[in-house]
Amino acid sequence: MCPVSSSRLLLAITIIASVVLGFLGVLYLLVAGLKQMYFWVGVILIGVALVLVTVVYKSLVKPPPITVYWSPSGEVKLEELKCPSCGAPLKIENPSISRVVCQYCGRAVEIVEEPKW
Ligand SMILES: [Zn+2]
Fold first, then answer.
1. Which long-range contacts (CB under 8 A, 24 or more apart) does 1-6 make?
2. How many whole angstroms from 47 Cα to the centroid of ligand 1?
3. Cβ neighbours of 40 (radius 10 Å)
4. Neighbours of ion ligand 1 (CB under 5 A)
């Protein structure tokens, strides 16, 4: 399974869920005058929807995964850095770090960079 398409699907589901939950939350708040309990149900639903929206926002802001190429010995041979667990390309935000967490499966991957000189 391609990890990008599955994360897109998850994103779409999250967006739909947040819209539905937010809508239900507003509905419950509207009928809160009838029963006190509905008020808290509405608050909880809207709260969950806000959390989902935050998750979606963060995943949208996150730049697309970049492919990192290593050329350890200066040869033309390029090696793509992939997650050993799910095969997704690993994104390295800070070149100085030696460990990166796969954004698809959450597995921490150690990066051993060979000297270029
Ligand atoms: Zn992975």
1. 3/86, 3/87, 3/88, 3/104, 3/105, 4/65, 4/88
2. 30
3. 13
4. 83, 85-86, 88, 102, 104-105, 107
Q: Which stretch of DSSP H or E encloses residue 15?
A: helix 3-30
CA 80 to centroid of ligand 1, rounded, Å: 14
| Residue 52 buriedness (CB in 10 A; 0-12 / 13-18 / 19+) | buried
Dihedrals φ, ψ of 12, to 5°?
-65, -45
Specify which residues 106 forms β-bridges with: none
- For residue 23, the model assigns a pLDDT of 86
Name the one residue in this structure whose structure tokens are 């040869």.
75
Q: What is the pLDDT along the chain (117 residues), one digit of tens a residue?
A: 555 677 778 788 888 888 888 888 888 877 777 777 788 888 888 899 888 888 877 777 766 565 665 555 544 333 467 888 888 887 766 667 777 788 889 888 777 666 656
